[in-house]
What does this fold into?
Amino acid sequence: MKQRIITGVVAAALFLPIVFYGGLPFVLLTYFLATVGLYELLKMKKLSIFSVHGLLTSLFLWVILYPEQYNDLLNTFNYTKTEIGIAFILLLLAYTVITKNRFTFEDAGFSILSAIYVGIGFYFFIETRDAGIVYIFYSLFMIWATDSGAYFVGKATGKTKLWPEISPNKTVEGSLGGVVSALIVAVLFAVFSEINATILYLMAITVVLSIFGQIGDLVQSAFKRHFKVKDSGNILPGHGGILDRFDSLLFVLPLLNLFHLW
It folds into this structure.
């Protein structure tokens, strides 16, 4: 627990100033976090990011992450993100032939989907920060409240297993407690922040986001159980890897953008 707290304090001291500042430093930080997340996923499947296919997958990820605010640069070359992304998908598939199937179609599919999974979530991390820092903090506090509420309510009253095949300690009671805790955060943000939503609308959105944040957590648990690993990585002592910390955000932020709060 001591190590977990120390890591959390150090990470927050490094992370929060960049989040507040925004701009290019925040974009570069997001690129770094997403690349580490991709590395963790590829490593689970015993695919090295330090390889030709790892480089192609990383480049594909970086294309997905490319922020909308810098689209003018792409326009000067008369290419879109979609066109460049398709090129990298075709290169990864062609690489299966070049390696005579040592890098298989399954490996290519896993690499492509991994880049999309990590890339979409972190892309909307950039876009959400560009919309306003209040939306980043709403997302973070809502997820923290969901996690804390689920843990304490589940520990106190949990009896009905939520999904024992994937995460044996999670309970239905804990999950509902997480949603209720997230709703408290929603009310506080609706009343005391400049977030662009009424209390009722933000509460309705929060219920959906809290549920999908928990699904994001379960998706990461499913990955780890399938590949028989305890944590996605060890870059954050006491917390695991980047994906262990951002699994819920990878689901919450794309959905938050779909609700068009700004």
